[in-house]
Design goal:
Layout: E1 6-11, H1 44-50, H2 70-86, H3 88-110, H4 131-166, H5 168-191, H6 201-210, H7 213-228, H8 234-263, H9 267-286, H10 294-314, H11 319-324, H12 342-374, H13 383-424, H14 437-459, H15 463-475, H16 478-488, H17 496-525, H18 532-547, E2 555-560, H19 573-587
Antiparallel strand pairs: 1-2
Helix pairs in contact: 2-7, 2-8, 2-9, 3-4, 4-5, 4-6, 4-7, 4-12, 4-17, 5-6, 5-7, 5-9, 7-8, 7-17, 8-13, 8-16, 12-16, 12-17, 12-18, 13-15, 14-15, 14-16, 14-18
Length: 588
Amino acid sequence: MPAPKTYAAVVADEQDPVLGSPLNPANNLNATSPFLPSIDGDNDEQGARAAGWDAAADFDGLPWWQVPSVTWLLVPFFIFAMAFGGMIVPKLNLIVDLVCRKHFADETLLDPNFTFIPVVLGADNPQCFIPEVKKSVSVFTMAINLTVGILSAFTAPKFGQLSDRYGRTKFLALASIGGISAEIITILCAKYPDVVHYNWLILAAVCDGLTGSFTAGGILSNSYASDCTPPSKRAVVIGRLHACLFTGLAVGPLLAGFLVAATGTLLSVFYALLICHIFFLFFVGFVVPESLSQQRRLRAQKEHAEKQDDHSARGTWLAPLHVANVLAPLKALWPTKAGSSPALRRNLVALATIDMIIAGVAMSIGTVLLLYCESDDTWGWGTVESSRFISLLSWVRVFVLLAILPAINYIFRVRPNARRARATGTAVPDANQGADTLDIWLLRTALVSDILGSTGYMLARHEGVFVFAGMLTAMGGLGGATVQATLTKHVPSQQVGQLLGAIGLLQALSRIVGPIAFNSLYAVTVGSFDTAIFALLASLFLLAFLATWLVRPHVYLKHDEEPAGEDEPLLQEQRGRSAVGSQVAASG
């Protein structure tokens, strides 16, 4: 009988004076940036092999079009993000116009002498920005977000778990089907507003949520990137995906505004979005190579089958409850098996909380932020001004992720590792080592920027100050890429999808709680204390900043495939230190 796998929660004692990283053979020498060359000048895949990253060997001998790389995802993910970003302002304005038409129609029924300026779909309709309409829009958009959030809370984690066993690309393609259905319903509501009631947009949200929505697309894309990338390069590579996201968010509104100006109708935007979703479906489903080799998928299927057999042996009556429990994926954040430690669990929970806040705020603040900006009591922006504002913030995030983050990674991670390699004369392998000091301080810096920007939103009394505050929050774009890359460094590669599935569940839950908090607060305080939403925003970022102080560097779950006796005692944290110390002594 084969010996069971063992896991060890490892904490390193001896640290590099620059990075705070352990002087351990698992450090990487080839964490490059997209703008700066690698140490030995090789490409990513060659660098991964040279550094001893074992996943690169899974695709040896295959033609280039069958070798997975995050580069395959950049174009389709950009299209996916552009569709998502391009619909934010037009869809919100469509909802405002539809709700406004209904409001004025109801007023006319109550008072036949009531007069109003006709509402033109897609045009600037200042008559619609009255407290009654804004409250109705806030409640309706909250209902849409709740619908998507509740349903994606079920589906996104399942997609993450299933993708570990059956591959990433299948479920990435599946996630776009909901977007296609949602755009078709939106087109019908916009084209036939007198026939198709805007409440049908709730059905569009149901279709979107059942396929995991943007949450599933994000976690599956990050899982794909993690499969293709050595751990120490992961923050930079996931940063590229986030840069594609924000580039899409920047370009999408501009193209949407151009289409509206050129065609004179909002419908053209939604037709274009439908084409984007269809392109993503076919490109990811039929062109992008799978990132998990058949060997790794079969191994994950075998481990899952063994786990199911174990559950059956313990008692079958609990199985239905386990399947129905929507919170079951969160167990990935609280490992209790052999070798896990309190430090590991604390790291995972703290980082998951930070990610939940960052993602939840990003998904929840957009609607009320635009309503605040477009109100006559503040800046009175229209579709063009709002689109430019979103585009500006997105371009700032792109610059941070494609220029600043790789430069920081090169200066503080690549160069020290290169000096250490020259000093020892040995190329060291790349492996999961948990968060290092650089990861933690990047998170803290990003969250401080978010706190300052949110406070600026609250105190701004001039458009220029408000826009500058928005740019400060955009600088916090470092946080999203860093926290997700850091999370994947804590677990073995075959558990990345499961872990990010749990993160997807938390993001979906934040999509439920976030709109309730922000939209309800805005609906209650509109006209009296409109900036209350920014006070809440700053408070959440402060909570995330405090959580970073709970994260301990270089704690991770080590996957050991070597034979071990069944009576092997649990490895404790001190034993992990001793193992690392022995490796250092041997290498010296």
